[in-house]
Structures are given as C-alpha cells and as structure tokens.
Amino acid sequence: MRRPSPLPQSPAASRGTAEKAAPPRAARAVEAPVPRTPEREPEEPTPDERPTAPVIPLASPAPLPDAKPTAEDTTTNQGTDAADVGFLDVFKAARARRRALRAEIRRFTARQRRRRAVWLGVAASVLLLALGTLGAAYSPLFGVEKITVVGAQQLAVADITDALSGQLGTPLPLVDESAIKAELVAFPLIETYALEARPPHELVVRIVERTPIGLIETRAGYTLVDAAGVALSTTATPSPGTPLLTITGGVDSEAFAAAGQVMRTLPAEIRAQVTAVAASTPDDVTLELGGTNTQVVWGSAEESAKKALVLQSTMAARPPADVSSYDVSSPDAVVVR
User: % helix / strand / coil in the chain, to the nearest 5?
Assistant: First the structure.
C-alpha cells in the first residue's frame, strides 16, 4: 500500500517544522527515523457556523458589449420581444418574406421568361403580318383594274373583256368566279377557262377554245360543231374551208364520237385539207382530201395518233396528187392506191 505524499509547504514552514522535530545530533544518530504524516487542512465551517450578513438586492448590471447572453437573459429578452411585437410587425415581416420569395422566383425563372417573351414576340409578329396582309389583300388597294384574255383565236378579245367588266374595282381575293362563269357561258367557242390573279391590279383569263371539226346539215342550215357535238354557230350556207360531216346517227352516236376523235388527232396541215368526213359505224371513218378528191380510209379511232404519224410520212413520200386513196386502218401495213 502506497503512502500518501505530503502536501507541499512553504520553505519557512518546512524549516520550522524540521527544527522542532529535529532531535539532537547524538539522539538523531541513534533513533530510527519517524515517517512524516501529511498535515490536514483546516475544515471549512458548516453553513450554520458561518456568520450571516444582511442581503441587499442589487440591480442586474448591464451586459458587456462582448459578453454572450445567458439562457436566463435570452428567455427574458424573448418574453420582452414577444410582448413588444404587434400585428403590424408580423404583417411587415410576412410581406418582406413574400417579396424575397418572389425575387428568388424571378431570379431562377429569368431564362424561361426570356424564352417565353421571344416566342410571344415572334407569334405576335407573324399574326400582325398575316392580319396586315389579309387586310391589304381585301382592301381596294388590290382592286381589279385590268382584265387580260389569253388564248382567244376565233373569239374577239374585246367582247370577252366587255363581258367581264363588272369585276373591275373588285379586290382580287373577292372576284366572283360564278359571275365570270355565267358571262363566259355565252361564248360557245370557249371549252375551258382558268383565272389567274396578278397583284396588285391584273386579272388574267386563260381560255381554251373548242376545235370545230365540221358542219352538220340541219333544217336551220349548216351548224358548226366540235368533237363533243356542241353547236358553235349556224349559217345558211357552208363556211369555206370547213369539212362537211356525214354521220349516221347524228352527234349522239358512237360513229360521231369516233369521227371527232380522228379529226382532233390529225395534224393541222392535214386537217386543213379535209373537206368531208363520213362514218356509218365507229370502225369505218373515212376522210376526203379536197382538191384531189383523195380518200383516206381510217377505220376505227384506235391508235389514231400512230395512224396520223404514218399518214403524214406517207403523204410526204407520195403526195395526194398522185394517189387516189390512203388506207391506214392498219398502221403497220399502209396501202396506197
């Protein structure tokens, strides 16, 4: 068992103690050394034994600037602040919080808002452009001031222009096509037509005239008809240079349809030489060339384009003046008499 170490003492007290405890040199040499025991500290008096003094209450000192508030001070300050905070302060704090939140939202959505603004600007520009274009197109700025007729050969252009004069001043998008059709129906020679608007003020009418194929003798005289059997005009006497048609069954027969197809297929230089066309059935179409009274046996309307080319080359090789008939009913084996 270890002995307790002695308490540290001052040098003076140690010397005094050593002098008091030191025996004479003779005795010290004989006696055995006695171990030192540590001195006990004086015991503190109990609370009952301490003298009492009057207690004087003092005001709590103000905290130093650098001192940290204690828990008691914090609780006291919170109670005081809670007592001093009113409804207006809470409202201001809430408004400031909402304002800060809106600022953060604007900061994080700035790119999205810029992209949206760009798209809205583009859409608004396109819409304004479209509205401006439509407004200008339907305004008198694009009114019809000139009517141009293209494709008229047998018809007088002035007659067609006068018939369509009612469209002058009308904006190009508002031109009445039904009214134009009603005016053009009065011209039987017009087979088809097409309208073309040329801004800002021109309306172009492209027409395709009917191709007359010959005259049919009727009670009223001689009627000029096209391949569809449409009556173009009627005269008391045959018009010079127009072939006379002799068709069994009239314009509504299959023989007439075959003869009309043949006449439309012929080249212009050959069609100008034809003075008569005869057909009793769709398979026996016959042409007569004036001046030489040469006959052309055509046969049916099948392969009419090929037959026309063969007839043209044969007539170039052997002119009609030296030929009585050309038989092209079989285009691969032409017979010339």
Answer: 40, 20, 40
> Is the distance from CB of 211 to CB of 224 less than 8 angstroms?
no
By the 10 Å C-beta count (0-12 exposed, 13-18 middle, 19+ buried), 220 is classed as exposed
pLDDT attached to residue 111: 85
pLDDT tens-digit readout, 257-270: 999 999 999 999 99
CB contact at 8 A, 331 and 306: yes
Q: In this structure, is the dihedral angle defined by the CA atoms of residues 163, 168, 170 and 172, taken in order, positive or negative?
A: positive
Quote the pLDDT of residue 95: 87
DSSP 9: -
Q: Mind giving me the DSSP string for 243-292?
A: PEEEETTGGGSHHHHHHHHHHHHS-HHHHTTEEEEEESSTT-EEEEETTT
Question: How confident is the model over 66-75, as a mean pLDDT?
Answer: 52
